[in-house]
Amino acid sequence: MTTAGRSALPGPPISPWRRTIRYWVARFVVAGLTRGYLRIRLEGRDRLPPGPAVYCFNHMSWADPFVLMAVLPFRPRLWFFGPKEEDLRVGGRNRVMYWTGSAIPYQPAKSDLLEVTRRVSAVIASGGVVGIAGEGRIHVRECELLPLSEGAAYFAMRSHVPLVPVAIRGTSWLRFGGHITVRVGEAVACEGQPSREAVADATARLSSSLRAIVADFPDVPEPGRIGRWLTERFNDWPEGSRDAARAASRTPGLAYSDLSE
Fold first, then answer.
1. Looking at CB atoms within 10 Å, which of 46, 77, 82, 168 has the fewest?
2. Would you state the pLDDT for residue 112?
């Protein structure tokens, strides 16, 4: 990878070897803490491409990226699309993500598509994989899948890498010793140029695959006080609370899916 390519990578402007050390430290620490609290298994590991790719996963909890860090292979290097702030040096959680250099920040309220695309392309060019929560928000039911944004398909088509559906089961409540399953689906081929029609078609195929994977996921029983506190401590509900999100999902005529935009 060229020096210019390395400089385009998100994160602090440090040497490649320091980036590598921070990445491995973060993965080991996260894996130890996450596996110390949850029981996690990976299904369909053989479906993961050996090289660069875009992983699109469903989103039930703030813990989803940490679960993926704990269970996915350490190589290729894993990056995550988000959070929705440009400066990750503000706020405790953001500072941790900035230190690890594993986040690709973006500003949804601003027109920075070119800059975000440059960052994603640099990550893929470095040999890494990009994880994207395609729904753009958390929701209440394990078997639900909200409409996916077209970003994952666009990035995959632009870089000519596989688009991999990844389903996470069990994180809607974080019970101590709770069973979490990460299930990998068949990769969606992304060939040709990322025209509007091609991206829409790839997104539809990705959505169909991911929806089929999560269809049999049962809802998780509500845990005790500690599990409830841990789950909701960092959850960001667009409606303001889990109860409000649940009510929105059950209200006839309410476009719950539109809330993901």
1. 46
2. 66
- Which pLDDT value is given to residue 4? 40
| pLDDT tens-digit map of 239-253 | 889 999 888 877 654
One DSSP character per residue, the chain reads --HHHHHTSSS-S--HHHHHHHHHHHHHHHHHHHHHHSEEEEE-GGGS-SS-EEEEE---STTHHHHHHHHS-S-SPEEEEB-S-S-TTSSHHHHHHHHHT-EE---TTS--HHHHHHHHHHHHHTT-EEEEETTSS--S-TT--PPPPSHHHHHHHHHT--EEEEEEESTTS--TT-EEEEEE-PPBP--S---HHHHHHHHHHHHHHHHHHHTTPPPPPP--HHHHHHHHHS---TTSSHHHHHHHHHSTT--GGGGG-
Q: Rounded to two decimals, what is the model's pTM?
A: 0.88
